[in-house]
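Researcher: Checking consistency across runs. Here is Transport permease protein again:
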Amino acid sequence: MSAPLAPARPTRMSHTLRDSSTMLRRNLLHARRYPSMTLNLLLTPIILLLLFVYIFGDVMSAGMGGGAGRSQYIAYVVPGILMMTIGGTVVGTAVSVSNDMTEGIIARFRTMPIHRGSVLIGHVIGSVLQSVASVVLVGAVAVAIGFRAPNATALEWLAAFGLMTLVALALTWIAVGMGMVSPNAEAASNNAMPLIVLPLVSSAFVPVDAMPGWFQPVAQYQPFTPAIETLRGLLLGTGIGDNGWLAVAWCLGLTALGYCWSKRVFDRDPK
C-alpha cells in the first residue's frame, strides 16, 4: 500500500498573496472603523468644486478666454478636482503608515512568519481602492452639478480610469515613504501636504497660459499638470499632445521612487 501524499506546501507567491490580502483587510477595516479622516479628505475637493463653480465660476472662466461661461468652466475644472481628490486621499495613507511605524505594530509584524512586503502592499492596495472610491463619489457630485463628457468613448473612459489608478498608485507609494520616515502622525500629514498643494498650482483651475509668466514653469513642470491635461483630453476631447506620455512617465518614475524608498526604510533594522 502506497504512503499517503504529503500536503503541498504553499508557494512563495501564494504565501505573499495570502499575507497581502490579510493586511489589505486590516487596512480597510481600520478605514471603516475610523472614517473621520477619510471624510475630511473627501470633503475638501467637494467643497473646492462647489466653491470654484458657484462662487468663482464666472470670474475664473474669464481667464479661459473665448467667452467661456460657468458650464464650460465646470467641464474644465472637474478633471483637476478629480486629480486633487487622489492627492488628498493618499495623505491618509501617510498618516496610517506613520501610526503603524510609531505604535509598535510593525515591530510585532517583524517577529511573525509573514511576508515582509505584505505590510506595505496592504497599505498600497487599500489606499488605491480608497482613492478610486473617492474619485467615483466626487465624480458623482460633479455630474449632479452639470458635468458631462458626451464625446468620450468607452475606450477613452477606460483610459481615463486607468490613468487615475496609475496616478493613485504612484502617489500612494510616495505617501507610504513619507509616512515611514515621519516621527508621528502629525509630521506625516505635514510631509504629505505637497500632494494637496501641487494641484492648486497646476492647470487644475486655469490654463497655464493665463498665469503670470514667472509662475508658468512652476505649473508646467510638475506631475499634476500633464496628468490633468491628459485626463481633460480624454474626457472632453481636447488635445493631449505630449502630456500623455509625460503623465505616464511621471507616474512610473514616482512609483519606482516611492517603492524603493519605502522598501529601503522598511528593511532597515529597527533602532
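Researcher: Does this match what you'd expect to see?
Model: One thing to look at in this run: The first helix runs from residue 12 to 33.
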